[in-house]
Automatic annotation (TrEMBL):
This is Ammonium transporter. Residues 469-485 have a biased composition (Basic and acidic residues). The chain crosses the membrane at residues 30-52, 64-82, 121-141, 148-171, 191-207, 219-237, 249-270, 282-302, 381-404. Residues 33-431 form the Ammonium transporter AmtB-like domain. One of its GO terms (cellular component) is plasma membrane. It comes from Orchesella cincta. Residues 462-485 are annotated as: Disordered. GO terms for molecular function: ammonium channel activity. Keywords: Ammonia transport, Membrane, Transmembrane, Transmembrane helix, Transport. Gene3D superfamilies: Ammonium transporter AmtB like domains (1.10.3430.10). It is a multi-pass membrane protein. It is found in: Cell membrane; Membrane. The lineage of its organism: Eukaryota, Metazoa, Ecdysozoa, Arthropoda, Hexapoda. Belongs to the ammonia transporter channel (TC 1.A.11.2) family.
């Protein structure tokens, strides 16, 4: 069976006429580069999962890991059905693409319009990874209180009605934002501003948790692992966004890494002087992610020295933006709005200042640059793109949630009893740490040696009485189970 026949069988059936371009006409080095970057970018999915898992209380932590993987599965299918054609069809209006490529039809012989040395099929799976990762970010805004199946359904429709539209506006040459000259190399608007706005809208729509007491991460090791995966995947995602392994990709990776490093150090220093001269591991991780968010739209347009400004300013603004949820009266569980929403806005605006023609010209792209090149209008275009992206995501997210929530059996909010017991037990049927959860809800004294006398647990998970327990008839302290473990 020749290549054309195989393509017909895969993408259009026996009656499909294919003029598949032989793979030898595509640069094998470029194809290999994009295959590897696509596979390695996927590490961000478990990265986000581990980060949120560690941040959450243990009784609702496993559900966040599972939702991240479900997002991967659901959005991959959505992308195959309709997402690709809405985002990347080669014709369309200013708002959205056409439906000529449903089920990836009619692209087997098509080179990517972003890089003619790459087949469109390969470009499709590359952009699919962005579509997969983006909804997982929203989950942190409503962690510990939303039911599993309604959230999965929300992910499907949010990807279609929000991510696909913003991606088309930003990266498709027919999109209105692309046409006016707004610059966004790695996804400041479609990935970060959109998820920050969505998390805020979601938090408003489902309401606050029953217990909004601030608690430290239940597993800082998982937060560290998640941050490491995210940092690694982000370097590759930004570097691969140009779809070509050249000097510009190298520069992108350098700028991304410098911004993350500057953000991590900046946030750590702020927390050090604010909190009793202690070095915060969580602050380091949060700062690194805010630095990554801020540099994303600019990573392919700025010099390494400019990227340090993105990391420092991004971490500084996002750190103080965490206070905003008190004024907004929103229970944004893991500060998705302040990190991704505000960080994306900062990055978009700074791109209008620091973008330079010479950086983009390394691989032949022509831009007008930003303020450093005397293009004073660029910040205005960036602001228009930012406001439109934020507004579209916020309004559409609220509408999607409103409609789904009205369908019988698909209400988002877990009951107070389910929230108290933990979504892992009520939604998944088991817990991240079964032994700890059993100690939390049963009499702990039945599970320890008889020579240790331990006070029974109260409803909130703390030991009753004075918090002192006995070992060999001597009072000791510290043997108790806390709610967040």
């Amino acid at each position: 069976m020749d290549a054309s026949a195989r393509a017909a069988l895969l993408f259009g059936g026996e009656n499909h006429t294919s003029t598949l371009t032989p793979s030898k006409e595509y640069d094998p080095g470029v194809v290999t580069w994009l295959l590897m970057t696509t596979a390695l970018t996927w590490i961000m999915v478990p990265g986000v999962g581990f980060f949120y898992n560690g941040m959450a209380r243990s009784k609702s932590s496993l559900s966040l890991l599972m939702l991240c993987l479900w997002s991967c599965a659901v959005v991959s299918i959505q992308w195959y059905f309709i997402g690709f054609t809405l985002c990347l069809s080669d014709t369309g209006n200013l708002m959205i693409g056409n439906v000529d490529h449903l089920f990836l039809r009619n692209i087997d012989d098509m080179p990517s319009f972003s890089n003619e040395k790459v087949p469109q099929l390969l470009a499709s799976i590359w952009y699919c990874l962005f579509a997969v990762i983006t909804p997982t970010i929203i989950l942190g805004g409503v962690a510990e209180r939303t039911r599993f199946i309604p959230t999965v359904i929300f992910i499907f429709f949010w990807s279609t009605l929000v991510f696909d539209f913003l991606t088309y506006w930003t990266w498709n040459r027919n999109g209105w934002s692309f046409k006016i000259g707004a610059l966004d190399f790695g996804g400041g608007t479609p990935v970060h501003i959109s998820t920050g706005a969505a998390a805020l809208a979601f938090a408003y729509m489902v309401g606050k948790r029953e217990d909004t007491t601030e608690r430290p991460p239940h597993n800082m090791t998982h937060v560290y692992i998640g941050t490491s995966f995210i940092w690694c995947g982000w370097l590759i995602a930004n570097a691969g966004s140009g779809l070509y392994p050249n000097l510009r990709a190298v520069t992108v990776m350098i700028t991304t890494n410098l911004a993350a490093s500057a953000g991590a150090i900046t946030w750590s220093l702020i927390d050090y002087f604010r909190h009793d001269r202690k070095w915060s591991a969580l602050g380091f991780c949060a700062g690194a992610i805010c630095g990554l968010v801020s540099i994303t739209p600019a990573s392919g347009y700025v010099t390494p020295s400019s990227s340090l400004v993105f990391g420092i300013v991004g971490a500084l603004v996002c750190n103080y933006a965490q206070c905003s949820k008190k004024f907004l009266h929103a229970d944004d569980t893991f500060d998705v709005f302040s990190c991704h929403g505000i960080g994306g806005i900062v990055g978009n605006i700074l791109t209008g200042v620091f973008a330079q023609k010479a950086v983009a010209a390394v691989d032949g792209q022509e831009i007008d640059g930003g303020w450093l090149d005397g293009n004073w209008a660029q910040v205005g275009w960036q602001l228009i793109d930012t406001v439109a992206g934020f507004g579209w995501s916020f309004v559409m997210t609220a509408l999607i949630i409103f409609v789904i929530d009205k369908i019988p059996g698909l209400h988002f909010r877990a009951s107070p009893e389910e929230e108290q017991e933990g979504l892992d037990k009520t939604e998944l049927g088991f817990s991240m740490y079964d032994h700890i959860e059993e100690l939390r809800v049963t009499n702990i004294s039945a599970t320890v040696p008889s020579f240790i006398s331990i006070n029974p647990l109260s409803e909130n998970g703390h030991a009753k009485g004075n918090g002192k327990n006995k070992v060999d008839n001597k009072e000791v302290t510290g043997i108790e189970t806390t709610e967040h473990l």
